[in-house]
Amino acid sequence: MPMPEPGPFREPDRPGRSRERLMWVTPDRLFYAGLLGAPSMHAKGALLVYVALDGPLRIRTGTGPWQAAEVAVVQPYVPHQAACDSRHVLALYVEPETIDPDGLPDVLRARSGPVDAPAFAAQVRRSHARMVALGRELELQPADFDPLVFGVGLPARRVDPRIAAALERMKHDPATALSAEDCAARAHLSVSRFLHLFRQEAGASFRALRTWKRARSLLHHVCSDSTLVHVALDVGYPDSTHFSHSIRQNFGLKPRDIFAGSRKLRLIASGLRAQPAGA
Q1: Model pLDDT for residues 210-265, shown as the tens digit of each residue
Q2: CA–CA separation, 83 vs 239, rounded Å?
Q3: Residue 170: how many other CB atoms lie within 10 Å
Q4: Angle between helices 206-216 and 240-251 (to 10 degrees)
Q5: Which stretches in the chain have pLDDT values below 50?
Q6: Residue 233, CA distances (Å) to 167, 178, 242, 243 in order
């Protein structure tokens, strides 16, 4: 039976819930525990896993029906919506160009939609509980992510060195107006050959991946005191219109809604000590 469209949820948080909200960001992974609004249909460039925290999720991919789930997987660039009545969810992001899809655990190879994986859900919740319990004493490095969250290291993807160089530039400086022409010249390839090889090696088009990396970089700023205009410029958008349009396409929410929902979020940046919002 199709699930109803999710509406706004306005009940106050339970006592102590805000201290459980956190986001651990590394260059290739992201762990989010926090509010889930009612976003419009959108498509992220990451392999995405939702895990219910204290109530069932609802997931809808494309024009399909709403389905209840404890765990839901969404493959990169698949349009979807997710909702949960409790408003709080656990979400994992894995950048697909960094992993070998043939060697992934079954839960991550599943088709987009609900997945029957209670043991995996328990593993992710334990990881979250540990991060909450350790609080500001927690120190994490990017290499800690897979063993802590997945219980195993995910297999790395072997990428042509010419494409790997372009991916590194795109990842570490997403605000730069990186062009396919420049990357092709550096790789000593024609533009058409570079774009073909890029899609083959990275699993996505050059433009799509560049757009996602820039939108993803917003997440490093959600706890800052900067205005949205300054954030838009810092992450490489020419103006607030382009900024808002791109963020809504990638996250299904307006930038101001993402920032509003992150006010009590503890940000754990790669290689740095965990800090409370605004620290």
Answers
A1: 999 999 999 888 877 788 888 888 888 988 888 999 999 999 888 888 888 887 88
A2: 30
A3: 20
A4: 100
A5: 1-13, 15-16, 271-279
A6: 22, 15, 11, 9
- Spatial distance between the Cα atoms of 31 and 258, rounded to a whole number of angstroms: 16
Name the DSSP letter for residue 24. Answer: E
Dihedral of the CA atoms 135, 141, 147, 150 (nearest 10)? Answer: 70
Two structure tokens written together for 191: 């533009």
DSSP state letter for 98: G
Q: Which of 225, 219, 279 is nearest to 255 (CA)?
A: 219
Residue closest to 198 by CA, chosen among 234, 159, 224: 159
Three-class SS state of 11 = coil
pTM above 0.85, yes or no: yes
Q: How far is CA 38 from CA 9, 135, 163, in A?
A: 9, 28, 36
The β-bridge partners of 114 are 72
Q: Reading across the β-sheet that carries 67-69, which strands appear in turn? A: 67-69, 57-61, 80-84
Could you tell me the domains of the chain?
Answer: 17-156+262-269 (2.60.120.10), 161-259 (1.10.10.60)
